[in-house]
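Supplementary Methods. Inverse-folding protocol.

Structures were first reduced to a discrete structure-token string of length 1460. This string, shown here, constituted the complete conditioning input.
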């Protein structure tokens, strides 16, 4: 190709030569011009709008300049060799999913701002590199982003970045095709990078990549960009020889080329040539011509061309004019720019386009032109949507700082912005940008200007300058900053001293000496407080000496020293001084709050000391704590019973109960009457009886103790003692006690006593109402004993008392019906069903209707069963057990009834449903010939759901024959997924370990020409490999097999990260259940052949029984069965080992699980825990506080190329934050380890900062916690994430010092950075915990919280989804009446009343709305109608006819429209 082009150089191109181009048409969509990337790239040839299209087409450069010799040119040829090293399967399986994520990330940035930042691109680039196997799409995405979409980078830097990306991805094995080379050319054009097109083509040829039409077009543009018409003519001649179409883009390039060559006459003549070729010049052509005139400064022709465009019934967009303005600026014709600026209409999208042009102008040194454009921005436009103050130009000032423009010039711009009322505080914002970028000298110059203008300088302004010296342990660097603070007259506060100055020094003495030498006051409050904190963690003896000095000033011990003292206790073995300090604080009132006592402060300190430790730490320091408590006892230090109870609960939760008796020594003797520490159930009973007797002797009421004793007796099934207690304390019986006794007797099937108790309770107080579960227990026992009249009366009583059935009660009701159905009691079921449905206690469902059909089938009355099913369909639109009825009719051969049944199904459900019902009935009864006739009915289509239902039924029941026949019979069924059908057989083969059948299935698939999915191939390969058979195909990599291994799927972790402790989280329990349970369709194992090694002599299938026990959560029994099988030499497959291990871990039996693992490793070749089992192992370690073991498991997973789940990572991090040492370093290690996974593991952005902060807080280092969180919120690209988790934990733990510091940080962020998220989080947490006065106080200090309407509304939405929250919603609306419209507030209130089933309040709200002349929305009216209906009251208005979903969507659309 290169030789061809060299020989073509004899061709010449003249302006007239283009007249020979005929028969071409302008191609490409006319709307392609609407987006062309960031404005400001000086492109020639095709207009920028074409060169820089959307997010997916932004180009980048790659080749060296033409002036470089070929000998020194880097080789960019694409290697086609495969990499020798295999990729990580665990990561590679996830890598393919990341392209959509990266595309969305960049696309969002482009749509929002019209540009991509270097940081964004590099982050995605590094993520892709970490996965190790970049795809072609990912490479294209990165390359296309390196051009005009990065206006903040210089052309040369963009080119260098593209080179770097090209080289690295090629090194990692990315295969490049023509699209990548074309993207490279686009980058060259946008970055004005000079290269040799001939060499470029030679490199493509060497890489075996053929150029296409786009390649040639861009090579022509490259020649024309440099004014090389001769070179362009060479490519053009080659295109003509290949009959490639000459498009508008080529003509635009030629126009630019002639202009660059100084031949404007030929450039203008391109337009008639285009028309002669059948291509009408479009806006892109006119922009190219305008740009050419702009380079010459020819304003007269610019105006004429613009008039021509208007006359041609076309128009130029603001973006087009920006391109012309950019060319004028770059050519030095600044005098014409204001005239063109006035022509811009500031249409939609003007601001982001103008921002990007300003950035490009600043990058190219055209600052004044950029400022001229900036001053045209709409006055209402502000960079900070959270501020009412004008802040136009933040991006402008930040980029000036990044480019290190002269300070004097920046100050002039700041003054002009403030004078024009475009920015409220431009100078302070510029200083912030300089500090964020660590530009020390630059920052000092700006600080001088700030001081000269009389603006305040704060200590925290210097923090960014102190970060690096402290990190490097560089005292000299810290002292330089301290000197600067003194020069500016800024005194260091406590946080500055403790967090940003003292940590740089080796010890306190060195710090004191150095700071004194530079003139710092060592007597200041901030230094003294910081010194005390440091002594508490390093030298307890010195701390005691300092505190005991009478001249030492008073301070709040709980707020300033408690955390540091806790950390000091853990680190030091100096118990004597620790006891002295504790005693001193216990007796000296100087160190407690005004409204507290020293004893209370010390008590809370002891509680926090224990609470800050985990199980391992408590065990390691058990003896030390015991000595400490005894020494405190000897000093007459006492604690309250409540504090003791809190410490006792902590010790009991970590199973360190041996310390409880030592803590008990400290309890105030006056509280000993409150102590009750029974051991075992019998001891509890004795203590309760003793307490009850004592209360009776003293004549005091003992209702609470009586009820507790009665409930304990009933739970232990000690009915005789319970009845004796009832008779003795008859006067103490209340509704709760009666309900407990009634439920217990129902459970013991004692109907007489249960009814007697119910009658006695009603006689005492007729207004007492039992809950639904107790009523249903009575109904069940009455129906079981044939007392149907009484059972019906009980249901009627439920209706009279307005007792509604909840979801869990529906299942109980089904079992009541089903018990009668199993006995064949047709009349009893009918009577109960009619009563329940007539009274409206619940709606009829197929499940509740099915027991009636069951009763008929149990009585062998098939006609009656059919009639019952038909009656249910007519009355309730339910057709229960129709499959079983049809099967029974087929088996009996009753064709008349069968025809009747099919006619009815056809009439009610359609012909196709009828055919499938008949087909499955024939399959069930092994009448395959008749089934074939049904399935081959013309026009019948595959119903995947019905076919899957029957296949799963076969797999559960281990029925290979009907499953095989179904797969065979459906071979010609229209739209039948054949791979899916055969995968059902393979799944059953996996369950039964039948590799011969699997091999036969593979052969049939090939005969039928089925193209298997990768998961199907993996499943088949797994079956063959596990039986030592050769796999006859290439096994796909990185995809998990389906079928039997579906039980190993990873759980979802969308509801965790910031939640409560994992084993108390309901959503987490469900996820753990997913990890430990297999679906029922996979639990059963086929009945193997007699020679199957999984059977012992007694014929007992150990594998099946083990899996069944695991499913029933009886892991210990399954473990015993495994040991029995092992002793008998019975083999168990790998899947059974795996499921048992996970079941044991879920049950907390970690030791047994590891024993099973060892057995599996020794008996199954190559066995190892998969990623899900390892995830569960991490969770188990976390539950036990074994953080070291959890970390070890995580590291082993990563070494084995397994990807940990979000849940495992989150719980490990949370446990490290709570653990023995609240290990912040370990949390950072986890962050580092998981960072290597890139975007394959996307945990919450605040998981690590939040828990790192909590770890510091629990170690007493609140300052470090504040530093971690503050760094998140002051980061340049911070999206202000939530730290509510930290506030919630601090409030729950009553950590006042941390709360004070965090509150101060939140207030500082609000005042100095306009960041209101932390204050809003704190407000909502206080509000959630019913600390309303504290919340109001916070609101008074930070009024901007009231403006955070979206967060407030989100919280209201969350509250309105839970019952019992109506008071909170009311309070929130009273505090923030403007957070949403009044109509929306009414909607939320009605939703709350509906959840609380509060008709009275809902009715009052409706009446109030009507009085105000307003209307209630249809969704609320629907909810109110439901309340009336449930209360049995007539609805006083016409209920909206549509569904709840319909009105909810309607309301949502209305809200979205109003926002627009």
């Amino acid at each position: 190709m290169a030789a061809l082009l060299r020989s073509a150089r004899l061709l010449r191109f003249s302006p007239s030569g283009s007249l020979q181009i005929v028969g071409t048409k302008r191609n490409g969509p006319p709307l392609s011009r609407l987006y062309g990337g960031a404005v400001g790239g000086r492109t020639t040839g095709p207009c920028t709008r074409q060169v820089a299209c959307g997010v997916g087409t932004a180009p980048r450069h790659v080749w060296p300049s033409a002036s470089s010799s070929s000998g020194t040119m880097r080789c960019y040829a694409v290697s086609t060799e495969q990499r020798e090293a295999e990729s990580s399967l665990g990561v590679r399986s996830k890598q393919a999913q990341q392209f959509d994520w990266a595309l969305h990330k960049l696309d969002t940035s482009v749509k929002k701002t019209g540009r991509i930042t270097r940081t964004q691109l590099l982050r995605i680039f590094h993520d892709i590199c970490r996965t190790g196997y970049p795809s072609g799409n990912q490479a294209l995405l990165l390359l296309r982003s390196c051009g005009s979409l990065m206006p903040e980078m210089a052309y040369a830097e963009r080119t260098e970045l593209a080179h770097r990306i090209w080289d690295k991805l090629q090194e990692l094995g990315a295969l490049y095709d023509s699209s990548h080379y074309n993207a490279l050319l686009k980058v060259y054009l946008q970055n004005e990078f000079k290269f040799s097109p001939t060499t470029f083509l030679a490199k493509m040829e060497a890489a075996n990549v053929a150029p296409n039409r786009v390649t040639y077009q861009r090579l022509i543009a490259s020649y024309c960009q440099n004014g090389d018409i001769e070179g362009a003519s060479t490519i053009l001649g080659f295109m003509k020889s290949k009959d490639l179409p000459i498009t508008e883009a080529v003509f635009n390039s030629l126009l630019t080329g002639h202009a660059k060559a100084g031949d404007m006459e030929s450039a203008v003549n391109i337009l008639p040539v285009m028309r002669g070729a059948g291509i009408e010049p479009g806006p892109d052509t006119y922009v190219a011509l305008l740009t050419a005139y702009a380079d010459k400064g020819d304003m007269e022709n610019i105006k004429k061309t613009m008039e021509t465009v208007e006359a041609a019934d076309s128009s130029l967009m603001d973006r087009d004019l920006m391109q012309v303005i950019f060319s004028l600026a770059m050519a030095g014709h600044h005098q014409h720019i204001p005239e063109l600026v006035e022509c811009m209409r500031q249409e939609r999208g003007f601001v982001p386009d103008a921002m990007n042009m300003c950035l490009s102008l600043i990058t190219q040194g055209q600052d004044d032109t950029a400022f001229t454009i900036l001053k045209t921005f709409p006055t209402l436009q502000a960079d900070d949507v959270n501020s009412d103050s004008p802040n136009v130009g933040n991006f402008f000032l930040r980029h000036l700082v990044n480019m290190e423009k002269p300070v004097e010039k920046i100050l002039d711009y700041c003054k002009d912005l403030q004078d024009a009322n475009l920015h409220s505080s431009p100078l302070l914002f510029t200083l912030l940008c300089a500090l964020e970028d660590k530009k020390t000298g630059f920052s000092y110059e700006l600080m001088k200007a700030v001081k000269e203008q009389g603006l305040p300088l704060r200590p925290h302004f210097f923090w960014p300058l102190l970060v690096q010296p402290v990190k490097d342990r560089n005292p000299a660097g810290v002292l330089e900053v301290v000197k600067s603070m003194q020069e500016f007259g800024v005194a260091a506060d406590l946080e500055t001293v403790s967090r940003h100055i003292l940590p740089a020094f080796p010890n306190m003495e060195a710090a004191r000496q150095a700071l004194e030498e530079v003139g710092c006051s060592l007597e200041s409050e901030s230094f003294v407080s910081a010194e005390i904190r440091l002594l508490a963690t390093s030298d307890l003896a010195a701390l005691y000496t300092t505190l005991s000095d009478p001249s030492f000033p008073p301070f709040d011990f709980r707020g300033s020293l408690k955390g540091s003292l806790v950390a000091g206790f853990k680190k030091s073995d100096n118990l004597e001084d620790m006891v002295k300090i504790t005693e001193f604080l216990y007796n000296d009132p100087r160190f407690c709050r005004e409204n507290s006592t020293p004893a209370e402060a010390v008590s809370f300190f002891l509680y926090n000391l224990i609470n800050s430790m985990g199980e391992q730490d408590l065990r390691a320091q058990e003896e030390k704590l015991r000595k400490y408590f005894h020494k405190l006892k000897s000093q007459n230090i006492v604690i309250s019973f409540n504090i003791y109870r809190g410490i006792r609960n902590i010790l009991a939760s970590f199973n360190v109960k041996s310390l409880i008796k030592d803590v008990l020594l400290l309890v105030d003797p006056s509280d000993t009457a409150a102590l009750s520490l029974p051991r075992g159930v019998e001891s509890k009973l004795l203590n309760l009886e003793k307490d009850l007797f004592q209360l009776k002797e003293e004549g005091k009421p003992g209702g609470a103790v009586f009820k507790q004793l009665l409930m304990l007796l009933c739970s232990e099934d000690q009915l005789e003692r319970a009845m004796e207690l009832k008779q003795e304390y008859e006067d103490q019986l209340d509704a709760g006690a009666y309900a407990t006794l009634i439920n217990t007797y129902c459970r013991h099937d004692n109907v007489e006593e249960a009814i007697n108790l119910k009658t006695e309770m009603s006689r005492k107080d007729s207004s007492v109402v039992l809950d639904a579960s107790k009523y249903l227990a009575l109904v069940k026992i009455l129906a079981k004993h044939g007392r149907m009249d009484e059972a019906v009366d009980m249901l009627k009583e439920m209706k009279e008392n307005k007792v509604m059935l909840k979801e869990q009660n529906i299942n109980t009701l089904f079992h009541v019906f089903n018990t009668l159905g199993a006995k064949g009691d047709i009349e009893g079921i009918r009577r109960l069903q009619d009563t329940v449905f007539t009274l409206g206690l619940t709606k009829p469902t197929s499940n509740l209707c099915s027991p009636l059909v069951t009763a008929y089938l149990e009585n062998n009355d098939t006609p009656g069963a059919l009639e019952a099913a038909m009656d249910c369909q007519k009355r309730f639109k339910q057709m229960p057990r129709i499959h079983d009825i049809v099967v029974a009719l087929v088996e009996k051969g009753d064709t008349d009834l069968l025809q009747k049944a099919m006619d009815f199904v056809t009439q009610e459900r359609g012909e196709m449903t009828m055919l499938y019902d008949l087909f499955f009935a024939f399959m069930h009864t092994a009448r395959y010939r008749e089934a074939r006739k049904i399935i081959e009915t013309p026009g019948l289509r595959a119903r995947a759901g019905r076919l899957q239902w029957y296949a799963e039924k076969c797999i559960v029941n281990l029925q290979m024959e009907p499953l095989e026949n179904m797969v065979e019979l459906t071979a010609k069924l229209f739209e039948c997924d054949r791979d899916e059908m055969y995968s059902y057989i393979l799944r059953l083969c996996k369950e039964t370990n039948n590799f011969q059948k699997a091999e036969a299935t593979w052969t049939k698939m090939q005969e039928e020409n089925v193209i298997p999915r990768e998961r199907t191939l993996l499943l088949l390969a797994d079956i063959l490999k596990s039986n030592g058979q050769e796999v006859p195909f290439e096994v796909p990599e990185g995809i998990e097999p389906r079928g039997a291994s579906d039980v190993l799927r990873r759980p979802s972790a969308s509801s965790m990260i910031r939640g409560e402790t994992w084993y108390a989280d309901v959503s987490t329990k469900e996820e753990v259940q997913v990890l430990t349970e297999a679906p029922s369709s996979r639990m059963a194992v086929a009945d193997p052949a007699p020679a199957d090694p999984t059977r012992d002599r007694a014929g007992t299938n150990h594998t099946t029984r083990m899996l069944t026990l695991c499913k029933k959560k009886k892991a210990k029994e399954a473990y015993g069965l495994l040991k029995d099988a092992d002793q008998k030499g019975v083999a168990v497959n790998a899947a059974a080992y795996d499921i048992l291990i996970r079941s044991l871990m879920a049950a907390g039996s970690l030791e047994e699980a590891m024993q099973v693992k060892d057995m599996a490793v020794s008996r199954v070749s190559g066995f190892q825990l998969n990623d899900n089992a390892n995830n569960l192992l991490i969770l188990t370690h976390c539950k036990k506080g074994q953080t070291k073991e959890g970390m070890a498991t995580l590291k082993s997973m990563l070494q084995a190329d397994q990807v940990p789940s979000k849940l495992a990572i989150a719980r490990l991090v949370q446990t490290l934050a709570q653990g023995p040492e609240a290990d912040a370093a370990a949390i950072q290690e986890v962050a580092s380890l998981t960072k290597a996974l890139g975007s394959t593991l996307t945990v919450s952005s605040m998981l690590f900062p939040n828990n790192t902060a909590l770890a510091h807080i629990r170690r007493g280092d609140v300052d470090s916690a504040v530093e971690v969180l503050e760094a998140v919120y002051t980061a340049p690209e911070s999206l202000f994430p939530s730290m509510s988790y930290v506030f919630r934990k601090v409030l729950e733990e009553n950590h006042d010092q941390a709360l004070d510091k965090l509150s101060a940080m939140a207030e500082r962020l609000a005042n100095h950075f306009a960041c209101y998220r932390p204050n809003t989080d704190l407000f909502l947490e206080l509000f959630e915990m019913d600390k309303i006065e504290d919340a109001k106080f916070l609101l008074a200090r930070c009024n901007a919280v009231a403006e955070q309407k979206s967060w407030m509304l989100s919280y209201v939405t969350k509250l309105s989804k839970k019952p019992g929250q109506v008071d909170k919603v009311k309070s929130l609306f009273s505090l923030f009446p403007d957070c949403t419209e009044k109509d929306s507030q009414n909607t939320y209130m009605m939703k709350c009343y509906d959840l609380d089933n509060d008709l009275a309040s809902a009715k009052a709200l409706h009446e109030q709305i009507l009085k105000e002349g307003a209307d209630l929305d249809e969704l609320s009216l629907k909810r109110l109608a439901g309340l009336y209906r449930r209360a049995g009251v007539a609805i006083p208005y016409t209920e909206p006819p549509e569904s709840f979903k319909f009105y909810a969507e309607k309301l949502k659309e209305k809200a979205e429209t109003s926002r627009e």
